[in-house]
From TrEMBL:
The gene is birA. This is Bifunctional ligase/repressor BirA. Belongs to the biotin--protein ligase family. Residues 1-185 form the BPL/LPL catalytic domain. It comes from Rhodanobacter ginsengisoli. Biotin binds at residues 36, 40-42. It comes from the Bacteria. It catalyses: biotin + L-lysyl-[protein] + ATP = N(6)-biotinyl-L-lysyl-[protein] + AMP + diphosphate + H(+).
Amino acid sequence: ALGALEVHGELDSTSSELQRRGSSARDFSVVLAETQTAGRGRRGREWLSPPGLNLYLSCLKRFDSGFAALSGLSLAIGVIVLRTLESLGIAGAGLKWPNDVLAIASRPSGGKLAGVLVELSGEYQGPCAAIVGIGLNLRLTPALREQAGQPTCDLATLAGGTPPDRNRVAAALIAALVEGLGQFERGGFSGFVADYARHDLLRDQPLQLSGPLGTFEGTGAGVDDRGALQVRLADGSLRRIDSADVTVRRT
Ligand code: BTN
């Protein structure tokens, strides 16, 4: 892949920047910003993006297969972030379905280390593109923790107080993305299932799920090879959840 790397001082959002490029963006284009004025999270939430502390990165990947074949992509990105941390020697993180990267030490509430936002465009069964946005917390100020409105954590905490060098983290994340997105293109989510399972924080946990079909309880029973969450219900049956519209809470 040719790729392209851009580092901006300030953008509204690294993902919006790649969206504006549209078809002119090269495959594997990576955009980083020091700060974002309108960082976006999942479900229309805001992603606070002050300068100097964290990483805000988006990568555009094209697929010939159409997005019908991309189930599990957003979970694979969570695995890619975990692989990045492992390559940097940082332990103590895990995955909460579908793709939140949490610190294990802060169980059961879970402190969020990274957020992943995958946006697809193009055709269902033809050329398409994924814009993968990753926000990774290296060091959060007390004010930022407060503003976040949810439990958060940062790499500095996991690394024993000092955040790892930001350039090293960025380089490791880009390397893991290029490798991992290529792997996904060749084999889909199946090549990530084992790594996901090793880091699955919901496995064997009591869960409460709520979504368009109502609220129910069960026990986490892993993810399947398409990235759906399996939940064991009280009667012993398995229910497969493949909608990211479902909110999962440990009870
Ligand atoms: C989430 O809600 O957990 C996803 C957060 C994704 C944030 C990243 S930061 C880089 C990229 N640009 C954005 O505007 N959002 C993503």
